[in-house]
Specification:
- The protein has about 260 residues and is an alpha+beta fold.
- The chain contains 8 helices and 14 strands.
- Strand 3 and strand 4 form a beta hairpin.
- Helix 3 packs parallel to helix 5.
- The chain is globular, with a radius of gyration of 17 Å.
- The chain starts with a strand and ends with a strand.
- The mean pLDDT is about 100.
Length: about 260
């Protein structure tokens, strides 16, 4: 069975319902994982998505904040949802596809502006969230699993537009990178995107603050696709759909794709 998966921080699924439908029509991923849906589950606009073949959904939602959803053409059942760091936020949902693959969809806290938990509670929450993710996957060793989402960390030097300038900027600080590496190691997760695209600058997010995001190209790779070692070699065709960042009224994130032959 071959299937294509995409992950996308949509920054309001109701506001950008048309963009989601456009991606579904143009690219037709079999599984689409959305983050920052900013909607209660019962308000997610399913009618148009179902008409495009996405008959299955598992989700957690909140009014105006956070929110994660997995939309699938492939039959899928819910496989759990965790509230790491006891934040009471809708930041994780897991679905199990009919082929037995479990897909974890995460929206890791952004962490605020100051990379110091002594003066910024949000940064502390981010580190605690990652620590509990690490502990969870140490205790519950994943198999035949994929982890995707907006992890809000660009770990490699070539995942950001300027490594030295961003070392003290939240999303690329050494302590965040170390926490993410510990989480990845705990589940023996393979970074599928970088397995396929091992070299070169690669971004999935460009700030709204830039008057010309494309020309400035001051991006970061915040959105990730990981897989467990038992299926990581089945992954291929990873890509970031950069052009989507230029659609009308876009999210500040672009979708990241991978295909699995299982």
């Amino acid at each position: 069975m071959s299937f294509t998966l995409a992950t996308w921080n949509i920054n309001s699924v109701r506001l950008r319902e048309g963009l989601v439908a456009r991606l579904m029509s143009d690219e037709a991923p079999d599984v689409l994982c959305l983050q920052e849906c900013k909607s209660p589950v019962d308000k997610i606009p399913l009618e148009q998505f179902q008409a495009l073949g996405y008959a299955h959904m598992v989700a957690r939602g909140q009014k105006g904040y956070n929110g994660v959803a997995i939309l699938s053409k492939i039959p899928m059942e819910e496989a759990g949802a965790e509230d790491f760091a006891a934040l009471g936020h809708a930041r994780h949902i897991a679905g199990r596809l009919e082929n037995g693959v479990t897909v974890h969809n995460f929206y890791v806290p952004a962490g605020g502006d100051k990379p110091d938990r002594a003066v910024n509670d949000k940064f502390g929450q981010k580190l605690d969230y990652l620590t509990e993710m690490r502990d969870y996957f140490r205790t519950n060793a994943p198999q035949k699993a994929i982890l995707v989402g907006d992890l809000n960390i660009a770990p490699r030097e070539d995942d950001v537009w300027d490594h030295k300038k961003l070392l003290k900027v939240v999303s690329h600080t050494p302590i965040e990178v170390a926490h993410l590496a510990d989480t990845q190691d705990a589940g023996k997760w393979v970074d599928v995107t970088r397995q396929d695209i091992p070299q070169g600058r690669l971004y999935s997010w460009w700030s709204y603050r830039s008057p010309d995001w494309d020309a400035a190209d001051k991006g970061r790779r915040l959105d990730h696709v990981w897989a467990t070692p038992d299926i990581s070699n089945a992954a291929h065709s990873s890509r970031v759909l950069r052009d989507v960042r230029g659609w009308e009224q876009p999210s500040d994130h672009a979708p990241v794709f991978a295909t699995f032959d299982l």
